[in-house]
Each structure stands twice: as structure tokens, then as C-alpha cells.
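Whiteboard transcription, Tuesday session. T.W. wrote the C-alpha cells on the left side:
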């Protein structure tokens, strides 16, 4: 496919070992911040707690995913944190 094709080839450029290592690293950084996920027609929405730590890890994850899996689209939406009423 040329870079002018409307669809990119769906191929990850990581080796199985690199993919497993990356998966473990991101899981270790994000698991405690995970709030849930929902399937939608246009993809999957994954929710995290929105702390500085999770936002930094998500940004790093997204940047690395774009390097190896350029066929996918990623979007990070940040909402104000929930506040508990006393």
C-alpha cells in the first residue's frame, strides 16, 4: 500500500517479545488506575482515573502504539476529576 491509500495495513511492527514486554510495562503502570471499558461502534472506550500518573502513562502508551501500530486511531479525553460530596 502506498502512503496515499485510504486504509493503512493492519500490522504491528513489534516482535512477540517486544509486545509482551510493553504490555507488562503498561499494565504495571495503569492497572491501579483502570476504571472500566465500553465497546462502541467506532471502537473501545477505556476509562482511567485521570491522575497525573495515569495521564502520563497513557500519553507514553499512545506514543509508542503509534510507532508500531500506525493503523489504529487513538484519542485521549480528559474530564474534570469527580468530587465526592461531604
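and on the right, the sequence the group agreed on:
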Amino acid at each position: 500500500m502506498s502512503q496515499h491509500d485510504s486504509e493503512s495495513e493492519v500490522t504491528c511492527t513489534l516482535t512477540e517479545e517486544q509486545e509482551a514486554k510493553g504490555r507488562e510495562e503498561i499494565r504495571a503502570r495503569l492497572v491501579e488506575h483502570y476504571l472500566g471499558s465500553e465497546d462502541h461502534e467506532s471502537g473501545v472506550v477505556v476509562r482511567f482515573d485521570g491522575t497525573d500518573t495515569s495521564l502520563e502513562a497513557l500519553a507514553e502508551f499512545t506514543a509508542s502504539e503509534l510507532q508500531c501500530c500506525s493503523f489504529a486511531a487513538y484519542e485521549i479525553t480528559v474530564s474534570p476529576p469527580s468530587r465526592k460530596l461531604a
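Someone added at the bottom: The beta strands are 34-40, 43-48.
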